[in-house]
Amino acid sequence: MDFVKEFQYEDEPNKEDTKDTGDLTDTADAINITDTISTFETSDTTEKTDSTDSTNDNERNNTVKREEFKKAGRQTYLKGVVSTIAAGVVGSVLTLTILPHTDYIKSLTAGGNQAIVNSEQTASSVPTVKTVSAQSGTVTAGTTSIADTVEKVSKAIVGIVNYQQQQNGNFYGSGNTQNVETGSGSGVIFQKNKDYAYIVTNNHVVEGATKLELSLYNGEKTTAKIVGTDALTDLAVLKIDAKYVNDTVDFGDSSILRPGDPVYAIGNPLGLDLSRTVTQGIVSATNRPISVSTSAGNWETNVIQTDAAINPGNSGGALINPQGQVIGINSLKISESGVEGLGFAIPSNDLLPIVNQLIKNGKINRPYLGVGLSDLNEIPQMYWQDLPANVKGVMVTNLDPNSPAGRAHFQQKDVIVSMNGTPIENANELRKYLYTKVNIGDKVKFEIYRNGKKISVQVKLSNNS
C-alpha cells in the first residue's frame, strides 16, 4: 500500500546518511593514528601493531553501532505501523458508537421516509377504521421507566365534559334553553386515521349529552361526536378531528392478568382540575362478576378488580400494565363507608368486540325479545296470579306487539321460568342467556306460567334494529 511505503520512507534511517557517518568515523581514526606515529617516532613495532589493533576495534565498534541503529529504525517503523492500525481501529469504533446518536443519519433517511409517507397517503384517499385488537405479550416489568410509560400514555388520555340542555324559566313561565355542565369523565384515544381520531369511554359519561367537550393533553379543547353507545356494557365510542391528535395507545391482553400484577390508573378524578392523575395498585382479582344497574336494565358484568384509587371522574380512563398497554377501562367503585380499595375496570378483551361493533354499526346488534321485565320479588304477590309455591322467575310487565314476543302471543303478567330448559330466576339471567347463548334468528322455547298454569311458547328472535 502507498501509505505504508511513505510511512516506511519517513521513519526508516537514511542509508546514505548512515554510510557518510561511517566514513567520517574511519577518517578520524586514521588521523589519530597518524598523529600517534609522528609523536612517538621512537616507539617500536609493537606500539604500531597496538595502534593498528585499536583501529580495527574501532571499525568493528562502528559496524555494530550502525547495525544497532538500523535495528532501532526497524523497531521504530514497526511501532509506527502498529500505532497507526490501533488509531484506525479506535477511530472506527468511536465513529460507529457516536454517529447513530447524531442527526447525520436522520438527515440521510428523512427524505426517504417522507417519500414513503407521501406514497402511503396517496395510495388511499379514503380513511379506514382498523379493527382494534389486543397486543400479545406478558405482563412483566421492563427496562423503561414507569414515569416514561405514564407520560407517553397520558398524552392519549382526554377529559370529557357532558353538557345537557336545561330550561331556564322566569316568573312569567317563559325562558330559554342552554347547555349546562352535568358531569365529567375520562376517555382513551386508541385509533387515528386521516380524518378522525377515536376515543373509548363509559356510556354513563356521555349519556344524555347534547354537547361533549374534550380536553386534550396539550390543553386544547374540541367538541366530540358520538359514534355509538351501549348502555348494557357501559361503553361508548366518540370521534374528534384527527388534527388534534398525535398520540394513541394500544390495548393489551387482559386474559393473561393475574392477581398481584402491577397496574396503573390514569384519568381525571373530580374533574379537569386534577386531569391525568396517576394512581398505582395491583390486580386484586380477575373475572369478578358484578351486578350493575344501567339505563338498559340490570346486568351482570365481569370486571378486573384493583386497589388502584378510582374516583368520580376516573370513569372511562385507562387501566394500564407496566408496558403502557390498556388492559381495562375504569368504570366503577364501591364507595360505601368504611370501604377502600375496591375499584373495577372492564377488561380489554371484553370491550374490544363491543368497540369494533360500535365503530362499524353505531350500536350493538343483539337478539331482541321485545318485553319489559321485573323480578318476582319486586312484584306484589297480589299480581302473581295463583303461582305455585316457591316458583322463581321473571314477570312480563310490558310488551311490544310488533316484537318477536308479541308475535308469539306473550301477554303481560306472564312469568318466564326457563329458556331452552335453562332455569331463569331473574331478569339479569334472562338477558345473560339471551345475549350470550343464542343468536339472531334462533328459535327459543320459553316455559311460562299464565293464570297459574305452565305452558310453552316458542319465539323466533330478531335483532334490535
Write a brief structural summary.
32% of the residues lie in helices and 32% in strands.
Please tell me about this protein's structure.
This protein has 465 residues and is of the alpha+beta class. The chain contains nine helices and 22 strands. Strands 2-3-4-7-6-5 form a six-stranded antiparallel β-barrel. A six-stranded antiparallel barrel has the order 9-10-11-14-13-12. α1 packs across α3 and α2 runs antiparallel to α3. The protein is globular, with a radius of gyration of 45 Å. The N terminus is likely disordered.
Q: How many H/I helical runs?
A: 9
Q: What characteristic shape results from the CA principal axes? A: globular
Got a strand count?
A: 22
User: What's the main sheet like?
Assistant: 6 strands, antiparallel, barrel
* Strand coverage percent: 25-35%
End-to-end distance, in Å?
84 Å
Q: Quickly give the structural class.
A: alpha+beta
- CA-atom Rg in angstroms: 45 Å
Adjacency order of strands in the biggest sheet: 2-3-4-7-6-5
Task: Say what oligomer this is.
Answer: single chain
